[in-house]
Queue: 2 jobs
Job 1
Amino acid sequence: MHSLRRTWESIANDEGVSELDQHVLSNHSFGSHNVNATYISQHIDHLAACADKIDAGITRRIRGEPHRERGRRRDRLQSVA
């Protein structure tokens, strides 16, 4: 289960999703890392757009398609031991 979570977080980072958005979407607390983050309110539409970005990144990797924004080819997803 944690391997999937790590993969999801890694792809979120590659897709340019902010650390704060990653914390919220993965249900991690974020106020302990940066007290200023507790003042930020995120709209559900914004979080849905971030989740869609991650989903598109996962789909591209499964298909073996190149990463569009950076022009680099990404390897297919592989399981980790």
Job 2
Amino acid sequence: MTTLSPTQARSNLSALLKRAAKGEDIRILHGDQVIALRPVTVHSDDYALQEYGVTEADLDRFVRRAKQHIGPHRKAGKMTTFSGDIEADITR
């Protein structure tokens, strides 16, 4: 277990994050509290709720509206699916 001051942590943050990601217990003293660095699993529905206050129902409504909006464009052949290679998609 490694416990550091904020100043020590700031100067080595990238290395500390890599070590924490590998499972090492990294702690930073903040006043009278100890703050732990740990990797967390984030799910898209959790992220939308936590970051934006969007509920699952809100997300479902958005998806339905987006599909209604882009459906005619896709049907008319004006839309393509992103392949992951922007250069290839631009030249098609």
